[in-house]
Amino acid sequence: MSARRTAIFLTLVVLGVTASVLSYATAAGSVGYLLGYAVVVGLAWRSAVRRRRPDRGPGILIAAAITLWMTGDLIEAVQYYFFTVPPVGPSDVCWLGGYPLLAVALIQMARRRAPGQLRGAVLDGATLTMAGAMLSWQFLISPLLGSGESLATSVVPALYPVADVVLLAGVLIIALSPGGRGRPTQFLLGGVTVYLAVDLGYNLLPYVVSYDLVARLGPLVLAGNGLLVAALLHPAGAELLRPGARLRTLHAARVLFLGCALMTAPTLAILRSDPGGTEAAALAATAACAAFILARFTTAVREQERSQAQLAYQAHHDPLTGLANRTVLHDRLGETGEPVAVLYLDLDGFKEVNDRLGHEAGDAVLQAVATRLSAAVRQTDLVSRLGGDEFVLLCPGATEADAIELAERVLSDVAEPVPYRGELLHVGVSIGIASRSDAADSAPVALLRSADSAMYDAKRLGRGHWVLAAA
């Protein structure tokens, strides 16, 4: 489904949910709600089964979860209009059954999106989930279990907050792990957030508003389902299972959430007691210690990130000129699936400068040449130093004529004298040019070898020439 059709689908879902909220508890409203639900379920199954077999698992689990939730609503509607709705019944089995299916789908997606990179996300997610579980137990589960009702009418309602905690764990692992953050992932996280918000509203809002208003939250579940299905239908939906880049930095919000989770248990413990001055002071001291620990933790992580970034830069750049090195050149050559030109450069007269004035003068020449080459190319081109006085220019999308024009410009730029300690140093350059007009014309290594060979032909012609490699 195209992005435009996905947007139309979500617009229809919003209109349908709005109509269901306004017509709640009417026969027409219930029929319209269930028909809209059936369409969403049908689209979910259609999207799931049309995927490649290795990618079907999470989509099938999501479709099954939505189907169970629709079945629960259908059973309750039949009981409401033709029988009596019991406090606990088969609808609860269907509703509760959807939560673990969706949680497993989220975990499967996370494993596909971040293979071998989930340890940090799992640990942080477990920390935040534990904090959520403690809050849920304190304010939702414990009051239900201690309500004095029968076993079924006290335990089954308490299972919904437990299911929410399971779902929270799944969505946190997705949110905290590497992977794309495009529209499909946003729809996925948004859909699960709607479920959690609706369940939280069912438990907390009856304390402040009438139950008739709270009951109208029910159709909002369809909005969450619509977001999940939109994530599956979106043309970029493959990002839900595609491995993402490794996270290189620790987001400040992550540290803040971990700090809040760390303070959850002592805060609840003091709230359950009769808080006085001593308890408040203890809580404040605990919060200060937690802040200091997190600040030290963040400092250590930032230092490690800087060290890793420096090592990564050194591994891919020439330390003298700052240009890309041979590794980067070969990687870019292999990735360039389009017409490309390669210019292989070797300086003329560089050895004489080095022998007469020493390596410092040679380094000054290399740095000056590197600056001039970087200024001569386009932003999409790559300038690399292979070592010694050899440089390579990689120009994706450049034609043979473009490469020749660039070579002429480079000959002129490099021939300009280099100031060094009151003296003007003169060097030239010999250039070999190789190009391909189609991505399949020549292997990357063969293209570089052709340019290298043409450069030696240019050397034999004398100082300051370029030679085009034979086709």
From TrEMBL:
The entry's keywords: Membrane, Transmembrane, Transmembrane helix
UniProt keyword annotation of Transmembrane present: yes
Annotated CDD domains: GGDEF
Residues that span the membrane, as ranges: 33-49, 61-82, 88-109, 121-146, 158-175, 187-205, 217-241, 253-271, 277-297
Classification via PROSITE patterns: GGDEF (PS50887)
Domain (GGDEF) ranges: 338-471
Source species, domain of life: Bacteria
Keyword hit for Transmembrane helix: yes
Pfam families: GGDEF
Annotated protein name in UniProt: Diguanylate cyclase (GGDEF) domain-containing protein
